[in-house]
Amino acid sequence: MAEIIKTITGLKPGQNYLFTLKAKNTEISAIDLPYESIRVKTPGDQSIPGTIDNNTFFIYGNYKSVMFTFEPTEDLDVKEYEYELYSDGLGSNLISTGKATATVFTIDVPNNSGASDDSSAQSNVTYYGRLRVVDTSNNYRRMDSNFWTETIFRHATYRKPAR
Amino acid sequence: MTWFTYQKNSSTTNAPVRRKIQFPILTENLMIGDWLHVNLGSLDIGRVYYYENGLIKNEIDLDSYLVVHETSNSYTPTYSLIVGASSENQYDKNLWFKSVTGTKAGQELFGEYYVYYHKDDIQYVQLSSGSYVSTSAPTGSNFIATESGTSNTKINKHSTVVENNSTNNRITSFSFLGTAGIWNNNESSTIGAKTMGTFNGPNFELYAEKGPNCGIIKITIIKTSASGDGQKIIKSNIEIDLYSPTKQQNQNIYSLDIASENIFLKYEEVYGDFSFEIEILAVKNQSSSNNRCKIEKYTFSKRYDLSLGDEEVKSNIAFKSIGGLK
Asked: What is the ipTM of this complex?
């Protein structure tokens, strides 16, 4: 039995890949159906993903949503960005948390334009958000809070309109 | 092509490949809750290869496959488990899953079953607001069946129950031999009276009534399928004393695991067709007042001759060719 060795490059760490083989007879241009696929999981890496540049990270709020926008890092194995949204700058009142794969995304927040009449003085609503990078080996788990975008969160202030 | 999908981290995801579990016309009433199996043979569904300590290793990933029952407008995942994946005996390597639909013998299966695989954590899903969403492994809600325990996720290799009375809801049933009248209300005290039944291997259990007037029976187990070395008696002259000072109903009087007998090596034999024959003997326990015999039921797992179709690849993924070799 012959052993054929083929090197495949460009695979990302900690990812699942399917491999299959197709036998091809080039003389009659006949191709067999693919053989049963096999699943291969590449080893995870220990590297910590890069941090997002604070100078490119901003959040914007309105009465029903908050938008995050930032420049991506240069990591080749970025899987997703984990975000947290707070109502205070100390990070004690979490509004929302989740993961996104885009560098610009919007998350819903409770409707904050609840003024009953236009004579009432309306106070501003301020949101505080932060981000961190998760790579394909889920290396974010090894990060501490210093790997979030900022210790003091980026914030967005939304002025409530009068009805 | 419809395909089972579910939500994970607010996005839709799916397994990359699947195989249809093919059912022939059913030869037995399939009931909700029955445990079915399909022999995997050399297929490696659920296996993942990985690199560790300088070596390429592999293992069965219990959460990387999911059996789903599908109709034109519904997907219903069900409990499943690959058993015997590491066994040297191919007959041991079976995908067991729990039936979520009932179909009468002689009819085509209602809907279709697929096994989706090569997707990490796909077993960790649950129904939420009409659609399936992922849960957190390894503690979240999942469809991984078990081989032990008592919950409804445990594989029941005796889910085909053949009752010896009018409540029997299977096609398979007891046969009574001898002149008319010696079996009355499914019991007899006539020496030499016989009853028979058929089952599929490898697991078989027989239940009978014990009591102060019960006799001794002789059991013979016969391989009836023509596969392998043909039909033959595999167990004979097994004598069981049904005497008991007090009446005890539905007692497990005999159990057989054909696989552990080490007489067959092929799936078609171990999980093949068998029959049993019970004869009331002239001898009886000295304390017994009669030769009475009342067999109440037997249990096994019906083999429905299921098979797996060709591997189907989800249309939204494509294999990248890395060139050929001559």
From this structure: 0.79
